[in-house]
Amino acid sequence: MSAILETLTAEKLSGSREVDLSRPLTIAVAGNPNAGKTSLFNSLTGLRQKVANYPGVTVESKTGFWTLTDELPPAHLIDLPGLYSLDATSIDEQIARDILVGRSQLVKPDAIVVVVDATNLVRNLYLATQLIEIGLPLVVALTMFDLAERGQLKIDVDKLSSALGVPVVPFVAKQGRGARELAQAVLTAVAQHDFGLDAGSESVDQANPQRRANTIRRYSLIEQIVNDTVQAQDDEGRSVSERIDVVVTHRFAGPLILLLVMILVFQAIFSWANLPMNLIAHVFGALGNAVRANLPEGILTSLLADGIIAGVGGVLVFLPQIFLLFLFISVLEDSGYMARAAFLMDRVMRSFGLHGKAFMPLLSSFACAVPGIMATRTIENPKDRLATIMIAPFMSCSARLPVYTLMIAAIFSGQKVVGFLSVGVVIILGMYALGIAVAVIVSWILKHTILKGPATPFMMELPPYRLPSVANVGHAIFQRVGLFVKRAGTVILAISILLWALAAFPRATTNSSSENLTSEQAAARTGEQVRNSYAGRVGHFIEPAIAPLGFDWRIGIGLIASFAARETIISTLSIVYNVGADSSAKSTSLIDAIRSAKRPDGSLVWTPLVALSLMIFFVLACQCMSTVAIVRRETNSWRWPLFMVGYMLVLAYVASLITYQGGRLLGFT
Amino acid sequence: MTLDTIPRNTNARVVSVEASEAHGLRLMEMGLVPGASVRVVRSAPLGDPIQVRIRNYHLALRRVEAQAITVALCAE
Known about the structure:
The structure holds two protein chains of two kinds.
Chain A: H1 2-13, E1 26-31, H2 37-45, E2 49-53, E3 60-66, E4 75-79, H3 91-100, E5 111-117, H4 121-134, E6 138-143, H5 145-150, E7 153-155, H6 157-164, E8 168-170, H7 179-192, H8 208-229, E9 230-232, H9 240-248, H10 253-272, H11 274-294, H12 299-316, H13 319-335, H14 337-351, H15 359-364, H16 369-374, H17 382-391, H18 400-412, E10 416-417, E11 421-422, H19 423-448, E12 460-462, H20 470-504, H21 519-532, H22 534-546, H23 553-562, H24 568-576, H25 588-596, H26 608-620, H27 625-635, H28 639-665
Parallel strand pairs in A: 1-4, 1-5, 5-6, 6-8
Antiparallel strand pairs in A: 2-3, 3-4, 7-9, 10-11
Helix pairs in contact in A: 1-7, 4-8, 6-8, 10-13, 11-12, 12-20, 13-20, 17-19, 18-19, 18-25, 18-26, 19-26, 20-27, 22-23, 23-24, 26-28, 27-28
Chain B: E1 11-17, H1 22-29, E2 37-43, E3 50-54, E4 57-61, H2 63-66, E5 69-73
Antiparallel strand pairs in B: 1-2, 1-5, 2-3, 3-4
């Protein structure tokens, strides 16, 4: 490696360039989507990566450190969003384009590594040749090289390199082949570059006919180059991918396979995740108890145990589901199946005014709307994307399940419908169906009113099937889970503390220390505290408004708390009913309390109709500060998240009202 | 004939791409330039979108978008 450095210093002395190698280089990695860019980036940076947001927009920026040689400081490597051409369409592509042509104020690359898929040379070279014309030091990383060799594509790398005028380095991420050669090539390119030359790129602001002519010209040049440098076995037979596709996109088998995949994902999220989730809930419950038992009683202990620990636990309990969800999404994306799912579902989605690419984000929202909404970035049309974001919360997320579970266990348990189906299953399925139905209707309305616009092109590449790489999937999960914990976590924690404060103040006067109280007395005291607190007062205040829905002031307190995070209604109800703060949806004492709760006139509070009304309210209302925070981030304004909370609240209220009053009219109680 | 009307699994060549369509340029940049060989592999279960093979890769596009591309069937 020092031989390189000597050459570089020699070049420096000859005065042909201006780059100061003692400071880290900034290198942009560009390329088509599905060309192996992420694999290359992961391979070169290892775990030294950071994901952030480009300021002002919702595109993620991925940067990392790449050690070029041991003597030089590591280079800043930037993984740009994939793009097909400098004539960018989506926001993702515009960001990449601006950085590459030097328009971005934030990032000015010193060099470009363009990833070219060896199995798809012609189209990949389209972007590569555009990038070469920009004039920055550039190296082509020829990825999928092993696949090309196996597919009997003989590429004369040296000939290709001289035809393009830039170094071409074969790269196989899985085997780490090519990393050192790539580093050498980049350093040489930077050292030998004549920065005086101001090549510039063909203007991206040209008129349409000019661009079309250029496109044709460029492709014919590329065809010539490829013909000269590549020898292909004439491959008219079907590749493995194509044979798989015969089944996967088959008229009948295709949707069936998709259904099976969906069932598998759901099964994992809703049942396999249960064990770890219960474990985490237990741990945090025990931690809270330990704190309360061992620290002196007082405000701070309560803040720690009931505010902070409860709050953090409330976020972390979702980790198993989020982990599994991202695991499946990553594997499906990496393997190429995701594109087929969008292909199969596009026609159906379109009739609801949505884009085929909305399918996966909406499916993800069944676990949690936060990553689902994050996933809508792949939808290029802003209006399509907004419509998808607006309806994502209707996909009954996993936080609603504890509420359904509690209601069913308390009010509907044991009953059977049609002989073998338990009422519980029917109700849960009904809630899901309601959410989907409302989502479809709202989407249709939005797309025909405020989000009306021309249908954007579907145009989506169906990449060849590839075995997902463990490294890539691992990286993706790690990063996304981390982001979730940070984004959702901070919001839920803040709200938990706020709610704790609302319920803890004003302090009820205490006559004796709590060490002498039995657990029932302690629970009663906590209940008293909550009832007289600010939260309790608000509950009483809104009671007239929610009475037509069948709710009383205690449920009111729970409703208010739940607007921060749905699942908090369970712990809030536990406190309000004097059952104690560490109850869960399955707690028998909470269920008993619910069954015996009475109104001032002696009638039961919780009738089946009330329970149904509450569940329907939860299906339709947006009760999640994390979702609001994410929508704010993804839409760059407060308009849309506030609109979302507002219209969903109206919908929830009206639906609950119809359910309760309608049910009473029909004679149910 | 246009790309959305040719029969399945038949080789064809692109003749021209509709100038007035905004996405016409995009399709060309994806490789659908005059002279490129193209083949409709299949359509989705409900008839739309269609899966098209261009050179070495597969592209899915809606029939209405494929209308912008005029093709000629190959002799073989």
